[in-house]
Each structure stands twice: as C-alpha cells, then as structure tokens.
Amino acid sequence: MSDPHARDPLKRAAAERAVEFVENRMVLGLGTGSTAAFVVEALARRVAQGLSVVAIPTSEHTAEMARGLGIPLTNFGEHRRIDLAIDGADEVERGTLNLIKGHGGALLREKIVAAASERFIVVVDDEKLVDRLGERFPIPVEIVRFGWQATAAALEKLGTKPELRQTDGRTFITDGGDFILDCPFSSIAQPRQLEQVINMTVGVVENGLFLGRSTAVIVASDNGVDVMTPGAGEKA
Amino acid sequence: MSDPHARDPLKRAAAERAVEFVENRMVLGLGTGSTAAFVVEALARRVAQGLSVVAIPTSEHTAEMARGLGIPLTNFGEHRRIDLAIDGADEVERGTLNLIKGHGGALLREKIVAAASERFIVVVDDEKLVDRLGERFPIPVEIVRFGWQATAAALEKLGTKPELRQTDGRTFITDGGDFILDCPFSSIAQPRQLEQVINMTVGVVENGLFLGRSTAVIVASDNGVDVMTPGAGEKA
C-alpha cells in the first residue's frame, strides 16, 4: 500500500475487461477515481478504433479527461437513460455485490448516473473485496452546508462518529457545493435499513451505499480477471 | 384571493399569538414567507422591549429582515439545538398537524431548523387547513441540478407529474443552489410512505412534507385565534 500505483496493472486489466462490454451506439456513464480513469483510457482506445458512443461523466475531472481523449460527451438533457455505467468502488461485498463509494468525493453524481443506468459494471482490484460492508471504509454522507453541525449530531445518534472531510487542511467541498461526513460503521449487517435512516435524516443529500445496483463486478487479482454477478459468486 | 394582502390581519394575529410562546434566553428558529415575516415583526417588538433571544434564520431574506429589526442572529456553529422554531405552512392537515411547506422555496433550511428544534410552532390562517395533505398544493421536492431530468423521470413513477419550478420565466434556484420540482399528489393517504420513497429517490435533497414535527399550530380565522396541538383537535 505504500506505493499508490502498485495496483495499477490490476486496475488497468479490470478496466480493459469492463470496456469489452461496451457496444456501438451506447449511452455510457463514466465514473470518477483512479480505476475509472483506466476505464476512460481503455474506452478512448476503442473510440479511436471507430466505436461510436456518447458518455455522461460523473465529475468535472472525468469530463476533462474524456474530452482530452476524444470521447464525445452528452448530458441528461439529451438522454434520460444510460445503457451502461462503469465505475470503481471503495468496498465490494462478496455475494451481494453491494458497494461503498465516495472516497473520491463524487458519490452523488455517481449514484445519479448508476440509478439512471440499465446496467452498472463495477471495476476493482481484489483488495476492495470485503465480507461485510464497512469493514475498511466509512460511509461517506453528502450533506448540505447549512446546519451541518446539527446534521452531524443527528447522524451520531445512529451509532457513528461522523468526521467532516478535510483535504489539505480545508473542508472538502463536493462538485455540488456540499460537505461530506465520513461515517464509520465497522461491519454493516443491515445496509438497507441503514441507508434508509441516513437518507431520512434532514440535511443529508445522499450517501455512499450502493445497494442492489451492481449488475456485474470485474475483479482483477494476481490470478487474473474475474467477472462476478449478484448472488452468483464468481464466474469466468 | 384576488388581494394578496386580504389575509394579512389574520396572519398578523396568529403571529402575535405565536410570539407569546417565546421566553427569555431562548434560541429561536425563524421561518420564511409572508406569515413568518409577521412573526419576525412581532418578535422584534418584544426584543425592543428587552426580551433577550438569538435566532437562526431559514433564508437570506429572513436574515436581512431580522437584522434590520434588531433581532440578534446566530448559527449552528454556536448552537446545535434550537429551543423553539416558528414558521408558516402551505397546508396543515387537521388532526395530525402534518404539513406541506416549500411554496416559498426555503423548505430545506426550514426543515433543518424544524428538525433541530425542541418545539416547532406553525402559524397560519384558516385557509391553509385541509382534511388531507395534497388537496391544494403540490409537494415541493428540492433536487440537485445534475441529472435533474432523470430525477424527475424517477419521481414520475411514483404517480405524479413533476413540474420544474419557474419564477419570472427562469428556473427557480434555491438558497442551496438546487432546483425544485413541484409534485402534485392530490390527496395523500399515506404521507410517511410517500416521504420515504421520495427521499430514497437518488437526486432528491429534501421534500416539503413535515410529518410529526408540529408541536402546535396557531390558526387565525375571522372567529379569532386557536391553538391546535397534534391529535387533540382544537383547543382555546
């Protein structure tokens, strides 16, 4: 873990495999983060070879990168449904393929894109697999700035210690202008109930639990690339 | 209804009665809208007479008005809990005292303030009373701008025809930078379920249903001012 790029070959391999699912004339959703960046690169190569697609990016960062690599962008004004979204994740629960996302700060747009997609393919290396969500990562909760202290106090009653996300000594602000509270929950036995009480908390915009949204998870490990589907365990 | 100020004497009477509940040294929440403006005026008179309070406003508009009238303002950085919030409403359901709010566009901050308050007093004239929520007003739903068309499409599946709020020919933007979809539901039999499915819709920030939050509703009619409490019907 000391070298942040040590897992890059695995991420790249998983990204390449994910992009094989892209078909001509698809409307795509493009995620945000280090793995999603490899997806954008792999997709750009196929576009350069003649693949015709349009894509909705989940962050300004991904938008810039895609533009620079010649991937035509679109938006929800043109297309209300997405055929296929591809994104990374912070944690993937084995079996359910439920996710925690948002470490990169783009969870809101990523969730909007995932919710609008027919298929949602997640790309990770095997370090992201967990037996239960929450083992390693807190749940990022995007909240409005007004009254954030009261919102944090309300979330604390759910049994977590929310931490206001900071970057370089400053409060992190999302693309939507909100704050993020990182809420550790150790091992999450009932993610659907938890998601509901979090989202019913006044001041919460969205949370990083992605439940029942993955149609496939592509996992790269030293042994190769596997495609997992919900409930089906692993398959080649 | 042709004269927008025809109900002003009733609103003023209800506001005066509400402000009688304010006690020295309280932290107050101040609502937004035409009725809330009478509350601010009535409160300012008591402050001028020596009442010592601090208040958290729910909009820039209310903040300016309170400042101009000499009411000391505070924020959630100083106070995480509010003793008493006073606000108007678009609809009040008899018996339950559940509300629809948000016609003025400040529902998000109003709901954050209501959620953080020990007591929440609602001030209306009797035209706002309904037998069932939704009879007259749509539910305002505050949504993030990114992907708003997809969010509207998702809400449409709940059986409503969301309308993007416009003011003076432009899309209305809230204090938080969001859009509002006005979602008519005619008569709402199960508001708690509806609130939940609305809030679980990705892209939704908050909605204008205020359920189980009113500790009292002050209603002015031509017959005088009544104070209603939840489940208790009307009492003097």
Identify the notable features of this structure and list them briefly.
globular, alpha/beta, 7-stranded mixed β-sheet, homodimer, 27% helix, 236 residues, 17 strands, 4-stranded mixed β-sheet
Structure, briefly:
The structure is a homodimer of 236-residue chains. By secondary structure, chain A is of the alpha/beta class. Chain A is 27% helix and 28% strand.
General shape of chain A: globular
Most extensive chain-chain interface:
A-B, 33 and 33 residues
Structural class of chain A: alpha/beta
Main sheet makeup of chain A: 7 strands, mixed
Give the neighbour order of strands across the main sheet of chain A: 2-1-3-6-15-16-17
Number of strands of chain A: 17
Helix content of chain A: 25-40%
Provide a count of the helices of chain A. Answer: 6
Give the ordered list of helices and strands of chain A: HEHEHEEEHEEEHEEEEHEEEEE
Mean pLDDT of chain A: 94
Q: From the alpha-carbon coordinates, what is the Rg of chain A to the nearest angstrom?
A: 17 Å
Describe the fold and architecture.
Two copies of one chain form a homodimer. In chain A, helix 1 packs across helix 2. Chain A is α/β, with parallel strands linked by helices and 236 residues long. In chain A, strands 2-1-3-6-15-16-17 form a seven-stranded mixed beta sheet, sandwiched between helices. Chain A contains six helices and 17 strands. The mean pLDDT of chain A is 94. Chains A and B meet through helix 4, helix 5 and helix 6 of A and helix 4, helix 5 and helix 6 of B.
What does the secondary structure layout of this molecule look like, with pairings?
The structure is a homodimer of 236-residue chains.
Chain A: H1 8-19, E1 27-30, H2 34-48, E2 54-57, H3 60-68, E3 82-87, E4 91-93, E5 99-100, H4 107-115, E6 117-125, E7 129-130, E8 139-143, H5 148-156, E9 163-164, E10 166-167, E11 170-171, E12 179-183, H6 191-199, E13 204-207, E14 209-210, E15 216-221, E16 224-228, E17 234-235
Parallel strand pairs in A: 1-2, 1-3, 3-6, 4-7, 6-15
Antiparallel strand pairs in A: 4-5, 5-14, 8-12, 8-13, 9-12, 10-11, 15-16, 16-17
